[in-house]
Amino acid sequence: MASYTELLEKTAERNGSISCFGMDPAIEKIPVKGSNNCERIAKFYSEILAAVADKIAAVKPNYAFFAQYGLDGLRAMEAVIAAAKKKKLPVILDAKRGDIGKSSEAYSKEVFGIWKADAVTVSPYMGMDSVAPFIQWCGKGKGVYVLVRTSNPGAADLQQLQLKNGKDVFMETAAKVAEWHKDGVGAVVGATNTTELERIAKFFAASGKRMPLLIPGVGSQGGSAKDVAAVLRKIYGNTMMHRINSSSAISYAYEKTGSSDYVGAAEKAVDGLNSEIGL
Amino acid sequence: MASYTELLEKTAERNGSISCFGMDPAIEKIPVKGSNNCERIAKFYSEILAAVADKIAAVKPNYAFFAQYGLDGLRAMEAVIAAAKKKKLPVILDAKRGDIGKSSEAYSKEVFGIWKADAVTVSPYMGMDSVAPFIQWCGKGKGVYVLVRTSNPGAADLQQLQLKNGKDVFMETAAKVAEWHKDGVGAVVGATNTTELERIAKFFAASGKRMPLLIPGVGSQGGSAKDVAAVLRKIYGNTMMHRINSSSAISYAYEKTGSSDYVGAAEKAVDGLNSEIGL
User: Fold this and answer.
1) Mutation for B interface: A65, A157, A170, A215, most B CBs within 10 A
2) DSSP state of A62
3) What is the rounded distance in angstroms from the CA atom of residue B197 to the CA atom of residue B186?
4) Which residues in chain A are closer than 8 Å to B156, comparing Cβ atoms?
5) Is A147 helix (H, G, I), strand (E, B) or coil?
6) pTM for the model
7) Looking at beta carbons, which residues of chain B come within 8 Å of A109?
8) Does B99 touch chain A (CB under 8 A)?
9) Angle A62-B61-A77 (CA atoms, 0-180°, nearest 5)?
10) Residue A167 in 3-state DSSP?
11) Which residue ranges form the domains of chain B, and what is each CATH number?
12) Which of A30, A228, B246, B264 could lock onto B219 through a cystine, CB 3.0 to 4.6 A?
């Protein structure tokens, strides 16, 4: 069985892209008619996917945005995941889970067993035994991205605290993740601070372990895909393992065009992202 | 409108208990027949609830354990929450969420808007703006428990690291939570380490802020309700604000009796917990 990292590399090589399309449904921004939210959300993303599937290298449905519409929203998530898998795209379920061992085990069953995602994002606050049940699935070709340095302003509150041993909390988290590593384990590192991204990427590269990075925060959060790509290139050369994610700047690109052609606008946004990354 | 803290106190006074009944459905342990998982899980907990509702002071459905059964499991969660609310019990949805601002906002809509929980558990790793959208709901009578010191062994990995300023990470988290405080904000502190529980409780008591504690980890995780209650009594006197949670030791108490009378066994387990706490 191919490992998750191999799936990432194969997809990037096939499509000539390391872009990840993030899916954050906000029903008031979805100009699609339908008899319910499930139908409207599923149709919106499936149409965009049909146009961009061979130009991206992963999708990242954000659990929160689907679940805010209840069972209807989760049914839409199921449909969107199925559509992405049909296009052979890795599906990263952005869920940021993390609980005591038995609860994390139940979450891992939900993520991989019920929703059939290929990878999941998890939070490290509760430590090794909260992450281990997810990592178990790496042996079955699944991936796990541990939050290391996130893209939001509040990341500074805990992640940037200085430890007695001289490290920042996020570098200590990076060290733990490298320690917990199995093939398929990666890290979430925000695009909004490229200095820290570079420190983390250097550390992982030096660890000698294949550590796929999931880099959100370009587009509406203000990170630059070009700067991120430059950092990755400097450290890794032309790696196909990492993913740079853009969400609403793709989905809702049409809002800035004055037209309701959301598929065309999303496709242009993906082209723009790919050319900024300049693979 | 009553605040969440007032709801906690009122319920504890009415029922003479600060016990919280945690719900972690594992279908293979549920000796109830039914045509699907939803029916079996909902029936099991509703029956136990009918017997113990006036002896407990909150319920804590664990999202992971319901969601591992997909939409069916989440429908059961909805039914169980409705049953608890009918009995006027505060519902703490144990979800440990935390994401960038917009995503946390979507999760807060899911938790409070869709599932109608009274309170939620959240993770602090992503900082203030990841917690703030939940705290916003405190103005509407909702509660938010931030993870401070969890009950699992892996808690040591990050939470117990020493900071340059001399504090442990979890005490720094406690300080942040006190700083972010509004009425309705509380903290999760595990029962498995009473020394740390005491340090945290003292700190919160000294802060002068009403900070309800949710204390899991008694029962199958090995914490002692008696010891926890002694710490609380020492610091707070006879407070009605905190909750000591027990999950599988109540739900699956019947397994140790050799009988299938899960309702009777659960009721005895609740009586035992209440008498250990000795309110």
Assistant:
1) A157
2) B
3) 14
4) 127
5) strand
6) 0.98
7) 68
8) yes
9) 20
10) coil
11) 4-277 (3.20.20.70)
12) B246
